[in-house]
Protein 1
Amino acid sequence: GRNILFLTLAAIYAYQVKAEAVITGVCETDFSGYPDCRDEFVKALNHAVSLGMAKDIRFETPLMWIDKAETWALADYYGKLDLVRNETLTCYNGIKGDGCGHCAACNLRANGLNHYLADKPTVMAAMKQKTGLR
């Protein structure tokens, strides 16, 4: 349920700086054990936050319908594979990059990367089809 807290705090900050949107990297493929990554949850929390703040702050989820391997393909498409691999945080133990290698979040991340690296052309094509990129 950590996304309840993260998205709520991000919405409060967005309100303070007069931003119109909060962008989050959650995706439905995380649903295996992560109900706060579902599209239904994000929409419901977005509605509650908008009501509670009396301001329409959109929660945007550009990765919602692509899987972990396709997320790596997207990073590679934009020439940011190394940046995403080394400078982002997925690990539940707070370890940047490849993380602890043991928690569920690290396993999802590693499996997605390994799948992408093992079959780049197929995964890249699937990502492009889902996102509309060329």
Protein 2
Amino acid sequence: QDFIAKSRIETEQARLLTLMAAWKMDTYGKKEARREISMIKVVAANVVMDVLDRATQGHGSLGMSDDTPLAGMWRFSRMLKVADGPDEVHKMV
């Protein structure tokens, strides 16, 4: 139950940060929202990885097999984490 609660809390935090970045873009333009956009790129990717890690842990060895979509989701999410630049680049903004 702790895994589910942590995952829900982190997902909601990322969602709210995304909404704040979108509001700032709509209100002031994307240049003014640059900091929030960089933050969400770091936060969302990390939240996805953490949630998938907990889901995999909860499923035991089945979570690492191709019998569930978790392993494929993890691989895809890990690829996306570096596709737009590593976290270190986004933290420099």
